[in-house]
Each structure stands twice: as structure tokens, then as C-alpha cells.
Amino acid sequence: MDAAELQRTDVYQWTRQRLALAVLIVAAGLILPSYVVWLQIRPMEGSPRRAAAGRPPRGRAEAMLGKFNLDGLLIPQQRILSGGPSKDGIPSLTEPDTVPVAEADFLAPDSRVVGVTVGGESRAYPINVLNWHEAINDRLGQTDLAVIYCPLCDSVSVVDRQLNGKTYEFGISGLLYNSNVLLYDRTDQALWSQVALTAVSGPNAGRALRHLDGWELTTFSRWRREHPDSTVVTFNTGHNRRYEVNPYQPYFQDDYLMPRFQNFDLDNRLANKSRVIGVKFGGQARAYPLKTLLQGKQMTLRDEVGGGAIELAVDRETQSVRVVSFPENAQVVHTFWFAWAAFHPDTDVYKPPTP
């Protein structure tokens, strides 16, 4: 075969390959959109909650559990499911890169942020980042803290990472319980539940970290206006993620839950994805529905749970509620109702006093 004939053959093969690729791209364009919405998958590797191909959540979970310290496990092992990624497949962050709030041009005005103020220092943790990492280990105002977010529950908690003289660093296990993220600590490899508000295995099983007050889930524009000296966690995380994209957006548009992760009972007192502030103190659990608070006339809510004083501030501009203060040992989380009720089935629901 001479060079000209070889070249013609190469061109022919190249053309066939490109035509085949084009057919695949067209097919993908027709099929993938609905598939993505159904599975809530991520557009790139390391994405939270993408189901592992060919393996049910329970079977994969059994294989993953051997990587963790399960001593004294407080939750039913058979109800722990795989969320899709492996251990650290969703990489938590530690001491992330930050910039002054005035330089945070990578966020839109309506971007949601978890705003935290500790020891006179303020910092915003964008949901854009937390969607992809779910836990940020940080230090603010001389306090080692963790900001934790589970997109499936829209749940936020802010905790002090120190317990009994040790400072813990948290990673993402890749496991779910009641459709909520199970963290693990890198010291003991033990599991911690966010909405259960406690360690569920290992030497600290049954213990809770100190929950911090003075935080809020709000918009970036409001945070920037109210905290001009704040810093903001940037998209410069060292990981290749599309932080400008919210892959959970379809999931937030209705009350639908993901069946493969739903192995718990639902409580129909509120819609599944009603947003609530959940508070537990003194053996009592109470849910404060944001819709109820936002429709009321009060700008500040003062209440009592388990004998302890709770204060919440209502912000109708951003349709949010800020956690102002609560007792020292109270546990507080912002979350969807279905998750709070699954973990705390004996919870009551706040109702404003009758005029």
C-alpha cells in the first residue's frame, strides 16, 4: 500500500469515527436531560449523590462500612445507604481560600450563603461551594468550626470542632442515613449524623459537638450589605468543580424525594420540603417552620424549648430566619421538614400564640 492509499484509508477511518461520535452526541442530547433530572447526577466526577452504577445503595453501603469505626453504632446498620460516591468522593474542605467580601465578584447577589460570626469575625460560606463539598473545616474568631450542608435535606449546621480537648476534622463518608449526610472524623474514623446532631459510632457515640449561634442562611447581597468587613470562601478550592452550577436545582422545585434513599417514614404535618429551624434542648425537640414565621408579624421570635430561651430573627427581604441565640448545649439545624421529623419523630411544631 502506497502513502497516498494509506492516507486515504486513515481519512476514511477518521471520518467514520467522527460520524459515530456525532451520533452518540445527538443521542445523548435527547436522552440525558431527563436522566439527569431523574437521578440528580453531577456533571463531573466527585459529584454528591450520584448512584453507583449497577449496585443498589444498601449493597454498596455494606462494602463501604468496613472503612469506618462502627463501635457502639447507635443507628440501625441496615438503614445506612450509599449516597453514590465512595469515602471522600465528595471532598470536604479545610481552611479554605477567602477574599474580602468586596472582592467576591464570583457570587451573584441572590446566591445563598451561610453567614457566620464568631468572636467578632464574620465569614460567608457559599452554598455554591457547599453543594460540592458538604463540610468546611475552618477557624474563625479563634474557634475551630465546621460548616456542614447536606443538599438532599437543605440542612445547615455550624459546630465547634473541639470536643474533650481534641480538635476534629470532618470528611464525607459517602453514606446516608434518613437521606442525610453521614460525616466521619479523621481522628477515630467514626460516623457523625448531621440532623441527628450527634456522633453515631466510635468513642464519642451519643455525644454532640457544641452548636454555634449567630449564623444565618441568607443571600450574598444582604450579607455583603450587613457585613462589609466580612470575608468570603472562594471557588479556588483546589478541586475542578463547576461552582456556578447548582446540580440540585430540579430537586428543589417540588416536594418529590429520591425513592432510592427513602427508607424512613414521612410525617405529613408539613410538606416534605418545608424549611424549618430544628431545635433540641432539655429533652424536647421543636420545629420552627420558616413559612409560619415569615407570614407572621413578629420580626424577632423569642420562645422556650426544654426550659431554654430561643431567639430567632425574621428577615422578610431574603425570606430567611436567622439564629440569634440559644442555650449553651442546645442543638440547632436548618433543614427540610422530612429530615427533621425522621430523626426527631417526637418533635412538636411551633405555632404562633392566638391573638
Index terms:
alpha+beta, 355 residues, single chain, 6 helices, disordered N terminus
Overall pLDDT metric: 86
Strand order of the largest sheet: 3-16-5-4-15-21-20-19
Which structural class do the helices and strands define? alpha+beta
Round the Cα radius of gyration to an integer and report it.
23 Å
Oligomer: single chain
The portion of residues assigned to helices is 10-25%
Helix and strand topology:
Layout: H1 3-39, H2 57-64, E1 81-82, E2 93-94, E3 98-100, E4 112-118, E5 121-126, H3 127-133, E6 135-140, E7 143-150, E8 155-160, E9 162-163, E10 166-167, E11 170-177, E12 180-185, E13 191-193, E14 198-199, E15 215-219, H4 220-226, E16 231-233, E17 275-281, E18 284-289, H5 290-295, E19 300-305, E20 308-315, E21 320-325, E22 331-336, H6 337-343, E23 348-349
In short:
With 355 residues, this protein is an alpha+beta fold. The chain has 6 helices and 23 strands. The strands form 5 sheets. Strands 3-16-5-4-15-21-20-19 form an 8-stranded mixed beta sheet. A 5-stranded antiparallel beta sheet has the order 1-11-12-13-14.
Description:
The protein is an alpha+beta fold and about 350 residues long. About 20% of the residues lie in helices and about 30% in strands. It contains 6 helices and 23 strands. The strands form 5 sheets. Strands 3-16-5-4-15-21-20-19 form an 8-stranded mixed beta sheet. Strands 1-11-12-13-14 form a 5-stranded antiparallel beta sheet. β11 and β12 form a beta hairpin. The model is unreliable at about 1-45 (pLDDT under 50).
